[in-house]
Structure formats: structure tokens, C-alpha cells
Amino acid sequence: MNVRTRAILGVVVPAALFVALFASTSNPAGSTGGAPVSTVPTSSSTTTTTTQPGRDEANPFTSPAMAAYLAHRTNDVTAAVYDVTSGITYTYRNGIRERTASIVKIDILADLLYESQRSHVALTPRQLVLASQMVEDSDNGATDRLWSEIGGYDAINEFNELVGFKKTIPSYSWGDIDTTPLDQLQLLKVIVLPNSILDAASRAYEMSLMEHTISSERFGLGWGSPAKALVGVKDGYYLETTTGWQLNTTGFVHYQGRFYLATIMSADNPEENYGISTVTQCADFIWKFLRP
Known about the structure:
Layout: H1 15-23, H2 64-71, E1 76-83, E2 88-92, E3 98-99, H3 104-119, H4 125-136, H5 140-150, H6 152-163, E4 178-179, H7 181-192, H8 200-211, E5 230-240, E6 244-255, E7 258-269, H9 272-289
Antiparallel strand pairs: 1-2, 1-7, 3-4, 5-6, 6-7
Helix pairs in contact: 3-5, 3-8, 4-5, 5-6
């Protein structure tokens, strides 16, 4: 749940635009000047079995630079990365649950798109506006409306089971869901890679919104990746009154032979900027480690 609530934009999206988006099977070009999403390989699927790195295998989280950095942080960090090219999944403090905050907004949109596919009814112009506000601007009011429209607790729990979540604890409040980075990687695979849950048009639409998040919502993977990289990101942040700030970043990065999905979560931050610095620096280390 983001502390900064964006104002409702009130922009009406023509229905024709939605039809055009969902009639296309090609992915949208990125907003950052990097390679277009259409260059993303289409051979991976959400059912692909990934392997954990062996004890002696290189791992971004045990690399000297990142290990030294994390050793001196006072916050509670957990993370996971899926290297699409190699099929390897890397984790840091696997199994730790933390609050979703606003990263759950891409989960809500994925569920909405899935329900739209099942009913064979396109999203309405109003829903398109709300979806844009929810993901690009991280507007909490728009999220409340779409959370209610998908069916809230029961709907998101059922959808997440379909996606393959293993450790997530649902909540009646969307920002208070407890999850793990590995579960969030499963969601990212459904959004980014070909699969049987979301079709190409739904994935292209959601990725486009993630690529166009506003600048203040692009820390973490957004700020920790090169300016020319194609980055789709959703960040989350809010103040836990008893433990401190929760700061999360989740999304995909594609550029210069690197293509990966990542979720970095950070709890117990003494201040917001401390958590932003942590997830952004970790994103930078991941980028540098996953050399082609």
C-alpha cells in the first residue's frame, strides 16, 4: 500500500484502443529507449523447471560486492531472481515472508485480465483507466475499486493458487498480503513469459503499463538498471508503525543479452530512503552480475 496516493486522472480511454491492444499479438516497444519487448524469447513457459545454483556456483547474492553490502544493512532483505536465458533461479534468504504493499497491484491486474479472458468480455474504458492509474501511478483509490471488482480476498487467493504460489498468506486488505519473492517470480512469469493463464494480448497490455510507471515509482529495478534497458517495474512502500518502512521492487529487465525477472523485498527500514537505497543497489548488483 503506497503512502503517496495519486489523484484520479479522469482520462477516458477509447474503447477502440482497447480492442486494438487486445487484437495485437506483438509486444509493445519499451518506453526507455531500449530493445522492444518483441525481442523477448518466446520459448520459456511458467511450467519450466528452474534449478537452484549449486553450493559452489556463482550467485549474485553471494558475490563479494553484494554480500559485503548486505552484511552492513540493518534492514530485513529477501530476494529472488529468475534468469530467463539460463533458466536458473537465484534466491536470498529464501522463504522469508514480507508484506506486498503496492507490488500486489500487478497481481490484481493479472487477475482482472484473466477473468476478462474467461468471460470473453473486454475490459471497459473505465477499467482501463483504473488499471493505468493503479499500475502506472500506483493510485490506491483505483486499486480499491479493482480489488472489489475482481472479488477481493477469495478471487486473488484462487488466482494465486492457479499461478503456483506456495508460501503467500492472503489478506482481506490487498496491501497486507504476506508473500515471498519466489511466489512473486511465479506471477512475473505469468505476466512476461508465454503461458496458459494469460494470453499474449493480456501480457503485452500489463507489461506496457509496467514499462510506463511514473518516475517516482521506478526506484529499485527501475533506477538500478541502465537507462536504455527495457524495464517493467512495480514498486511498493509503506510505513509499518511498529517495525519501520517496507520497500519492495518487482519486475523484468531486458537489455544487452540480459533478460531476467526479479523481486527484492526489504522490511524494517528505519526510513523510506534507506529501503529505497537498498533495493536499488541490490538491483544494480544483479544487473552487473548477470553478464551474458
